[in-house]
Amino acid sequence: MQSKTTTTVMLGVAQTLAWASSYYLPAVLAGAIGKDIGISTSTVFGAFSMALLVAAGIGPFAGRLIDRLGGRPVLIASNVVFAAGLAALSQSTHASHVFVAWALMGLAMGSGLYEAAFATVVRLHGQDARRAITGITLFAGFASTVGWPLSAYLESTVGWRGACLAWAALHLVIGLPLNVLLPRAARADQASQEATVANKGAGAGLAPAQPRRAAFLMAYVFAVTWFISTAMAAHLPELLLASGATLAAAVGIAALVGPAQVVGRVIEFTFLKRAHPLLSARLATLAHPLGALCLGLLGTSATAAFAVLHGLGNGILTIAIGTLPLLIFGAEGYGQRQGFLMVPARIVQAGAPFLFGIAVERWGDGALWFSAALGLSACLALVVMTADMRNAPLVAEGH
């Protein structure tokens, strides 16, 4: 029987590859793709946004398959589709080809990124999956650290087409074998019985009428935090420039976000491992607003503090996306539920660079007050969820 640690490492490495070759690919290659094909860079990013919408649509279906069959066959299929999408992108000569290739990539992203990996470990380990979820994000936190330099090196040596083919090959020679070696899940009926036993106590703090509200609140928190994360990924250097930082300082400070995300996950893995996931999530949603407050009050001298605080919170919130549904609703039907909860997040993620770009254009670094307000609203939603769980037993006693 494969150990949980081994499974976590294998999924972590495979996730690093999946994120590096999809989500972090356009930042490096979009310009070269557009120039070679004769389309604007924004058109390439438009195809990427469409891929995120495809991922939102396929997510619940992929989650339901993982609930029934386990994650192994779904993740194996995602490697094949990733490779096909990257190969198709490498052969593109027209804008329509780019959109078709990214549509394929969207299918793979919806069935092969974090939600699928989290559902896989929950299907294998039930309520004991929290540390495995954290471990997977620790590995994949380095996806941009690995992906951006490697994509840039490949583009400079073999061109963007060769870079896409190289990433496709890595899916077949690294990602695919790692997912093939994952343990097989128990049959769906057996897993359902085990989950029923394991779920005793999971979600016990919710009165019968409250799970629906908890699901809406959770979907809102995930959507807001992904909006902020994607907006910062697209516009952070520009925001730092607007706050008075030099170009070199803005780029260097923006680079602190990635390591800070990993540090945040290490903090969750160590100091917060015994804390309630709702407490960890509430603290994490406050990190971005606190950073924005520091930047607003102290100006350029606080730019590094803002980037670090944003990264710390974002790193912990990535884990919360996997652990909160497990805590509130339990392991049974986790994959499909996770897919539905992430649909709003994927949709707003697709529009975040454009929408927040308008805010930056209009308000400059004042746009951070908008993102800070969103972060505070996510914290408020988590406070309401916490209150529901505390008050539910009293409600139940009154019936």
TrEMBL record:
Residues 7-390 form the Major facilitator superfamily (MFS) profile domain. It is a multi-pass membrane protein. It comes from the Bacteria. The chain crosses the membrane at residues 44-62, 74-93, 99-121, 133-154, 160-182, 214-233, 239-258, 304-328, 340-360, 366-385. GO terms for molecular function: transmembrane transporter activity. It is found in: Cell membrane. The keyword Signal does not apply. Keywords: Cell membrane, Membrane, Transmembrane, Transmembrane helix. InterPro entries: MFS (IPR011701), MFS_dom (IPR020846), MFS_Efflux_Transporters (IPR050189), MFS_trans_sf (IPR036259). Its main location: membrane. GO terms for cellular component: plasma membrane. This is MFS transporter.
